[in-house]
Amino acid sequence: MRWSSEGFVLSLKPHNEKSYILEVLTVQHGKHKGLIRGVHSKNIRSIIEPGNEIIAHWSGRLETHLGNYSVESIKSWSSLILNDRKKLCALTSACSLISNTIAEKQPNENIYTGLKFLIQILTSNNDQWIKDYIIWELNLLTEIGYGLDLTKCAVTNEKDNLVFVSPATGSAVTEIGAGQYKNKLLKLPKFLINEKFDHDTEDVIDGLNLAEFFFDKWFYKPNNLNFPESRNRLKDMFIK
Predict the structure, then answer these.
(1) Helices (H), strands (E): how many in the chain?
(2) In the predicted model, what is the mean pLDDT of residues 150-171?
């Protein structure tokens, strides 16, 4: 059987001396793997960098088989940010998070369009891109079934002055609601409540810590997986 679909490259891993396993997030077939050959060719290698948009042509005897890929380039998004280490790391991190967390061969329009929107932001002149990236991570958490509730305080039901998140429930908490447990709660950056709020480095680190905590707690640790190195590097870039 054969099919073709637009998609984004998620990862490329060695299979043997002559071939690699290419993982693509496709419109019609969700996250899908296949063998690809000729990756040492300069033309092919430049097409299959994480985050690049392609047309993937898959063929195999059965849908359950690994099958083979051939690819055509739509847009090499990664080449637009080669000189920006933070943005390039954010792009790789986003692809790794999707690769790790979503089931294979299950189309998800929200995740697909969300990644496309994020890539467009990362490759634009938007100097607020890191806020959008963190929001994207929290949206991905929601899509895989672990969304946070940042609409009201879990203790007082107030919708204003939300400044913390409970590590136990993922629900927002006000200063008053936190009481004596402030030092046990996660900080909630204001821009996650209202995107119009500005941010500083501390807000960025708090936002990255927030998403990382719940990815790790609800997905990575239960599945005995390590948090993506590219995501760790992204946070380190802001800490330094």
Answers:
(1) 7, 8
(2) 96
**Assigned domain for 180 exists:** no
Assigned domain for 137 exists: yes
Mean pLDDT of 18-38: 94
Supply φ then ψ for residue 76, to 5 degrees.
-90, 80
Non-local CB neighbours of 4 within 8 Å, separated by 6+ positions: 55, 56, 57, 58
Q: How confident is the model at residue 239 (pLDDT cuts 50, 70, 90)?
A: very high
The single-letter code of the amino acid at 222 is: P
Please give the distance of CA 138 from its chain centroid, rounded to a whole number: 9
Number of domains making up the chain: 2
Bridge pairing between strands 30-37 and 19-26: antiparallel
What is the tens place of the pLDDT at every residue in 72-125?
A: 999 999 999 999 999 999 999 999 999 999 999 999 999 999 999 999 999 999
Statement to judge: residues 214 and 146 lie in one domain: yes
CATH number at residue 89: 1.20.1440
